[in-house]
């Protein structure tokens, strides 16, 4: 951006925020922290941070004034959707224009609100000209379509004959997952730099590979499966990384399927097994931060995952070849208030918190326990309790405090955090937010500090040790680690 343009932008922002008197200089790092604090106020997450939409707005505004681009976007959205501030369409458009110049809408000739996207026209266009054949399903899809604010995230009804080459890839505990070729393909925005500005064009990637998953209860009652679809959509609005493309119906079996992103690197477990010797702690900490962020989103949305294990965390490589995680199996996802485990529970025993095995209900803290088990697995490259019968003797041992171990050389701070997650007292386990912040801090150290930093030294040392450890082959087949009904000790 030229200096001149930058100055104009700054003037415009001061003009827009002249009622806002805290225009002190804020650096990038600080504006990011203020944005995050705003996010916590908006959703009421974190110790001592209660839900306060107006505080959320003022924090977004402060980070926006400091030039934080996400802050600018959030301020615009607050004005549009009345988050902690009066609805103001004019200010919404002003802030959106600052955020980026997206050209004009072909329908109303007003400024676009996003890349090749007009929030006034495009959601209305998306809900027209199609039907699944069922009004309830149509309405459910349309409800989300109206709330989506970018082309690439728009969901749609996908006729089954536009899907080809369907193959079963996972015999999931909670319904199978298939791969398929979507003939029309995933939505993409093409951006072209044209001297002083970008132009954006809508396109699709024809014949893209997608994943299909039968939704729970989709055969008996169409309304039941929509509940799972709703849960997935609610999490994508909270920025979960799993991309959903829409719904389809198998014309023969009449089953409804969700069409979503195909993870090209399979599950976390498969990825660890294949690459363990070459994975540095820097990559592992990155992955864990990602997984903890997704867990945080689920908890913030008021849900509990309840079936958290390395077989249903999917990994995908983004364009920068960074690994990204997402959850595939949200079938059992429960709302935080209803987590009853009457009549047995469903899961993979070594990942299930001990109080749940004893018959108590699922809680957010039980998800955190599962996260602790995954921390152990990422340290050792081994699945927990591999080769041991998953029987009542194992359950009793878990009660007496048995937990999976850590690889030699694993840093103490890491083991300490994992052990807190695995505490037998759910109250003593950290929250998803605490875990995410800790991992963020370690990642920052790994990326920025010099090699003399004590924590960095420990992780770098652990990298060297791993190369000297013997490779242990898994004893159990994958089948052992898919979700099953478990009889709790209460039964
Ligand atoms: Zn328009």
UniProtKB/TrEMBL annotation:
GO molecular function, one term: protein serine/threonine kinase activity
PROSITE patterns linked: PROTEIN_KINASE_DOM
Highest rank taxon of the organism: Eukaryota
The keyword Transferase is annotated on this UniProt entry: yes
Alphabetized Gene3D superfamilies for the sequence: Tetratricopeptide repeat domain, Transferase(Phosphotransferase) domain 1
Start and end residues of each Protein kinase domain: 163-443
Spans traversing the lipid bilayer: none
Assigned keywords, A-Z: Kinase, Transferase
UniProt-listed Pfam families: PK_Tyr_Ser-Thr
Protein name as it appears in the record: Kinase-like domain-containing protein
Species of the source: Gigaspora rosea
